[in-house]
Write a structure and sequence with these properties.
elongated, 4-stranded parallel sheet, alpha/beta, homotetramer, 7-stranded mixed sheet, Rossmann fold
């Protein structure tokens, strides 16, 4: 009898999700004769038995489409005992042998926990976060699409900033880690890059370099800042900076330009250089996946079907160097992958050096 | 002796400015043997005699570059008597015969006024506004680039909105006229389009259609709203809507998602549909000009040089149907070109019809 | 009883076709209570009664998608008496009151002829050609998308040409008229533009200007040439130029870089400047429609439904200046709209002037 | 005294070259107080002492620009004894301490050879090829930009192919290795992918799968083929296939759609499915670098300056997993990095399975 495999996507959507699903279905059906069941809206769909069939024709033309054909939600199936029981019961009712769970630390953590509770609840995880800060894998899909969009946006801001002799502050995603801001900032030719991993001094790390650029005759400047960049408040010289309290969405992303707006105002006040800001927000999450993300997602989907065929469970697919392979999930999945030292140093390379 | 022509760009930057300058210089030098002087930072450069030479080599490789190689400012040379005198004196000191002034209603209005004061201050205007709301010309350059960027952004939001079962509110430029919002909204397949020309009722024009979409099983919705869209406050049923007071930039553009944020909150409260918002802001202003804008700008630049060669003054270049031609500037330049009835009706075509 | 309207698309596909269909269905259903029948594969579908229903849900999410959801063919329903009879009979069998025919001179010409034969075969035409050379309308949709793609391609070639000190010859669509080549050439900053309307002398119009550029120290050059550009053969100085015989597709487009390849070889031989070429071919026809094309197509679709509602027949929708309106179709539909004098003159503006 | 470092770029241009130069100059000047000399047109510039200064201001705004600001050529400085002597002599005359040579197997091989001949000719290589087939490094920059362009092009072809019920054959770069074709083919959703590493049978690998697709009701198909894909001629069933002899450019790339054209004709003849083809050619080489390429190139440039600072010579910079580091250059640099088994298997995953 054919192995029956459920697939779900949880958490924030991300370009490449459809490519994972597509590749798993192609590999599973063409090479292992598996059957697939699409579970809609993440764990919510498992709790509610909201499913769709997944055949080759359903997934064929989806690789260029962003988002997830299975839809997504933030439902956590391990929130209550009742949820846990329902999830495990429905897994059986749907006659599933395996579940491929595509998601971030929450989705994968829940899958891991359910499998620990019931070893028949066999799971293969596929790591997903646009922020590239997930434990265990070198790169997550969606990230490359996000930085391409962000770099193109920053490219566009150069000419308007230069024409008006302005500083342009661009706020990028990344509450805990600066991957998007660093890579988009480097790629977009930002003069100053501020990331969560390295709390900044508003004078030393922002205003002084800008004053130096201005003094050197530079007509404009670009500042790339993570939504989660943190101020070294104790070093603030005059205490005037107040980052306004702002709404954050369920991914923790700042809804309204909190930090970018605050920095633009500080720059005008302290440096006397006209400043504007842009918050890229949801734009970073949308659109067709980049070529890199399409290929990586396809490799992840293939590896997930292979892992099922090999009878593995409690594993997640990971990119290690050039190789895509299953690794064992552990509690470490909760850890954030922060920027390594090479990258933190790179963040400062293109700023003017100041004596302070 | 060669005719000496100054060129300046004033007001907000706009994709296509370099193409106007480039075409004017090519036409003027190659066909009329003119000399060109670039005046930097708009009228400010005339007041300060801040100029650069403009030869073929200076303008050759500029057509793909956004912004303005001459830089820009918001200085108004008719603000004081002293400014007026200085402007006219410097025009003479620079030995200019003509000035090609590229800008919006303020820049062209000032040019017109200076010429009225001194008929030797010969001016040819080229209309520029990204908002497409300028009097006298069918289309302004920069607008097409802006709507292409906005449509691509809205395209990208569909997949993320759909994946999460959300309403996405997109705020677009347009304080007084809805050209960008209407065309980007239609192009981006928005379900609801709110423009300054047609004040809206929050229940009848926003919430009711959304409820109907949801009831019909639609998974998501896109709302396109002009920064300057206006609420029919007297019809607001419960008085709860408060558009927060927000900063506006010097073009009157809302700096921080005032209206989009307010509408997303109202939709969540009143309709119970999860909502997010995006403010495109300065992204609409940047980037390489679209093909349409490059060609239109080139035609404007050619026509400006031709107008100088013909000895015209007090004219502005305009697109009338398929023809680019000089028209007389009048006080009407201050008028806003609002959306015609055909477009206002189109704005409502793709919304669900409700009984209310 | 509701008016029943068939829609078909004929000839080469073109970005914007889906937007026309979508807008006609929205307008027709929401404002006039019409019923729509999609006829697949152009006239072929009418001859074979190959139809699909067209409701709001079928067309809603199609505006960003290139090509035509109704598919297309080159079948001519007036080719034989039998075809004519079948077309008219099937129109009745399908209980159609109107046909909206979207296509070029062939499709519209056939619609016009069938209506002349049988006045109950009521037709409203919508003009379509990517080449922008259709009679009766100022602009056709699809053209703007094509020139945006072509301009972006030419933009990309500048850096590689410059890095290698080369001439790059780009071949663009346009067998009879140079619209795409002229506008993409101007937009892409081409040094030399060769169009069907102005047969060229290989020495005077190509090699001499290139020699002059080279002598002036220019590192590279871009030549934009229409597939249908014609050589003034009698003026060829040494008779060595042979344009190879090439395949043309059913739109008359050169399949394999006939003219671009020939010109690149001639430039290497005569000027001694390393040359490469690129044939854009089908790339010009694909992809999501530009913002301009989405809006224009939508206006065409609305106007087509309005024309049906007004009981018109034998008309086509046209853009005249800023207005979209029905005009009477005549035999003139067979005429090609060539580049006007303003444009032909613009084609030469950015080439170096030579004494010859 | 400051270390003096020459930089040159050799071979085909590639997006990312400017980012390497820029990052090396920033790192070298800001952290090691080095001096830089730009050598123009590759080794040709060293033979002719054609140099420019390279300071921060010269490289600052170059990261978004394709091609190479230093220009390039195919000159081989080890071609003759005289060249070798001149190269070494000029290295001294220019008072260089180091040379950073950015290029492919030829450029790096020559650098390695000159250093072997004279150990004072200290060299650090940076690997460059758009084809991603260079020995020693996991990924080369430029490749990601190329596949993004190719994937976008293939995306665009889907709608036109589908509208016309056609097969579209796309020819991609890759004479010896199928990296671009495989990744662009997977990313673009190609039905059939033909690469140099796996010679193909025209019936079994092309026509049979197409017949099966057609029989299953698929409306269209996309074939991605490397310019260097090879036919298993001995297995050709009827001997009718003749790949025409074609020009190849200096990188070995087919100038005129040799294989794509031949395959399109064969498909029409053997399968009876209307077919068209497109040759992407130089379009794959141009344009602004992708985000990935900008970051990778920046890391390469930084690592090159670091290697100079450490006093290394005879090394090249390589990406190994997540780490960028210097490795020793060896004769193996001449080897082609072919697609690994995982990728070859992936190439066949999305084709319909046939019994043959």
């Amino acid at each position: 009898m054919a192995t029956r495999v459920g697939i779900l996507t949880g958490g924030g959507d991300c370009p490449g999700l459809n490519a994972v699903i597509r590749a798993a279905v192609y590999r599973g059906k063409n090479e292992y004769n598996m059957e697939f069941v699409g579970i809609r809206y993440g764990w919510k769909g498992l709790l509610e038995k909201d499913t769709i069939p997944l055949n080759i024709d359903d997934v064929r033309d989806t690789i260029a489409i962003g988002g997830t054909m299975l839809r997504t939600s933030r439902t956590n199936p391990t929130k209550t005992e009742k949820y846990i029981k329902t999830a495990i019961k429905n897994f059986r009712d749907l006659e599933l042998d395996y579940l491929i769970a595509i998601g971030g630390e929450d989705t994968l953590g829940a899958a891991f926990k359910l499998w620990k509770i019931d070893n028949d609840f066999r799971v293969v995880g596929v790591p997903k976060t646009i922020d590239n800060d997930l434990w265990g894998t070198d790169v997550t899909f969606g990230f490359d699409t996000a930085i391409n969009l962000a770099v193109e946006a920053i490219d566009h801001l150069h000419t308007t900033a230069r024409s008006h002799n302005r500083v342009m502050v661009v706020e990028l995603m990344g509450r805990h880690a600066g991957w998007i801001t660093l890579e988009a900032g480097i790629g977009g030719g930002a003069d100053i890059i501020l990331i969560p991993e390295v709390p900044f001094d508003i004078e030393k790390d922002l205003c002084e370099p800008l004053r130096k650029l201005k003094a050197e005759g530079r007509e404009y400047a670009i500042v790339a800042v993570s939504e989660g960049a943190k101020l070294k408040v104790d070093e603030d010289r005059d205490g005037s900076l107040i980052i306004q309290e702002v709404d954050r969405d369920e991914f923790g992303h700042v809804r309204l330009g909190g930090i970018a707006k605050a920095l633009a105002e500080q720059i005008e006040d302290r440096v006397g250089w006209e400043s504007r800001f842009v918050v890229l927000g949801h734009l970073q999450r949308g659109g067709p996946p980049s070529a890199f993300d399409r290929v990586l997602s396809t490799r992840y989907g293939i590896a997930a079907a292979d892992a099922v065929a090999e009878g593995l469970s409690g594993v997640m697919i990971a990119l290690k160097g050039s190789v895509v392979e299953p690794i064992e999930m552990t509690e470490e999945i909760k850890n954030i992958k922060k920027l390594p030292e090479e990258y933190r140093r790179m963040a400062k390379l293109f700023s003017p050096k100041t004596g302070k």
